[in-house]
From TrEMBL:
UniProt key word Oxidoreductase: yes
First and last residue of the signal peptide: none
Xref: PANTHER family: ECTOINE DIOXYGENASE, PHYTANOYL-COA DIOXYGENASE DOMAIN CONTAINING 1
Cofactor needs: Fe(2+)
Entry annotated with the keyword Oxidoreductase: yes
Protein's recorded name: Phytanoyl-CoA dioxygenase
Pfam families attached to this UniProt entry: PhyH
GO molecular function: 2-oxoglutarate-dependent dioxygenase activity; iron ion binding
Keywords: Dioxygenase, Oxidoreductase
Entries under SUPFAM superfamilies matching the protein: Clavaminate synthase-like
Domain of life: Bacteria
Length: 273
């Protein structure tokens, strides 16, 4: 296969529909997350994973030794909106296959990009404490969803993502940022929920709702746990008054400071499906 035809094949895989069963949709809506096997091929993950990794290390500014970092900093290297840096990263982030799954799981008419983010947990990287993402987002309804894409097999020792099932409906802890405090408070609160804490095979991805509580273990392997994520939102979602400093920052950074009450359609929020 020529390089051109190989690239055409990869792009086709990123954009062709994935068969999503009624059972998977029902599971997501009940539990606030779903794990799906064989969504992306080894070839797609290898090709785009290499490019994403290059850009993570090119853009990373966190160089402190692990012992000098906060709990949040120990959890992962976090690089956002890489789609603006490189055309091939943009191809991956704008995948219609992945955006369509998000649309179907939420039952909306289409989705916009909120932002992408690479989350690389280095060897010896610490836990990612319990949290719900939408704490950080000034958005008007719960139709938000994140796809979590490991770029390698992710066994338990690497710290795969874990979910508190059905926790998207609990109001407790919605005003808590990611921290040691959130881990302590929520670990206690979330005992009432079953936890799904299982490895990810290569090609397996998860989708979780903005208010679903999740965490990840430490990376005890000798290799980085490389993950790419995209956050999608209902294409008609509105901007709400930011209620904490993080939401103010997100409103300015990702939502173009769009007026409160208007559709969240800033220049960084294209419709992907």
């Amino acid at each position: 296969m020529t390089a051109h035809s190989e690239k055409t094949s990869l792009l086709h895989q990123l954009n062709e529909p994935f068969y999503l069963s009624d059972e998977a949709i029902a599971f997501y809506r009940e539990n606030g997350y779903v794990k799906l096997k064989n969504v992306l091929s080894a070839e797609v993950l290898s090709y785009y994973g290499e490019i994403i990794t290059d850009w993570v290390f090119k853009l990373n500014k966190l160089t402190k030794p692990m012992e000098e970092r906060t709990t949040y900093e120990r959890a992962f290297l976090q690089i956002m909106n890489m789609w603006r840096e490189n055309e091939e990263v943009k191809e991956f982030v704008f995948s219609k296959r992945l955006a369509r799954i998000a649309t179907e799981l939420m039952g909306v008419s289409g989705v916009r990009l909120y932002h992408d983010q690479a989350l690389y947990k280095e060897p010896t990287g610490g836990i990612t404490p319990w949290h719900a993402d939408q704490f950080y987002w000034p958005l008007s309804n719960p139709n938000t969803i994140t796809v979590w894409i490991p770029l390698q097999d992710t066994p338990m020792e690497m710290g795969p993502l874990a979910f508190a099932e059905k926790s998207q409906t609990v109001e407790i802890g919605r005003d808590v940022e990611i921290s040691d405090e959130s881990e302590a408070l929520l670990a206690e609160t979330l005992k009432q929920f079953s936890m799904n804490d299982t490895p990810f095979e290569l090609g397996e991805v998860s989708y979780h709702a903005g208010w679903t509580y999740h965490r990840a273990g430490a990376n005890k392997s000798g290799k980085a746990r490389k993950v790419m994520t995209m956050i999608y939102m209902d294409k008609d979602i509105k901007v709400i008054e930011p209620t904490n400093e993080y939401r103010v920052a997100d409103w300015q950074t990702w939502l173009d400071s769009k007026p409160v009450g208007s559709t969240a359609d800033g220049k960084l929020n294209p419709i992907l499906y």
